[in-house]
What we know:
By secondary structure, this protein is an all-alpha fold. The protein has helices at residues 2-32, 38-66, 71-92, 94-101, 103-106.
Amino acid sequence: YASYTVFTVCQAIHGLGNPGSRVVRKSVVLKSVDRGELGRFNGSVSLLFTLTRMVIIGGSTIMISVGVQRVIVAFSVVQATLTALFLVALFRAPTVKRIFLSEAHWA
């Protein structure tokens, strides 16, 4: 039952980090994004998360057909692609630039 142990540990770590990150994300968004831009910002973030899920599910489906031997390489490629897309999306949005690049916000 080694896979059950790994699954339980991963779920415990996810359970500890998920609520905290949601609270922090909501606090930062509500303090930093103008009221007029909140809907657009939340819509963009929701779209990004949906696209990410679609890519992960599609990538996982393709990896199953490729075989076990190439799964680690395929996961690495998918992760690198998602990271690059996230960074491009992150720094192209003016509101996000203002949130993360303003020094006064973090002081």
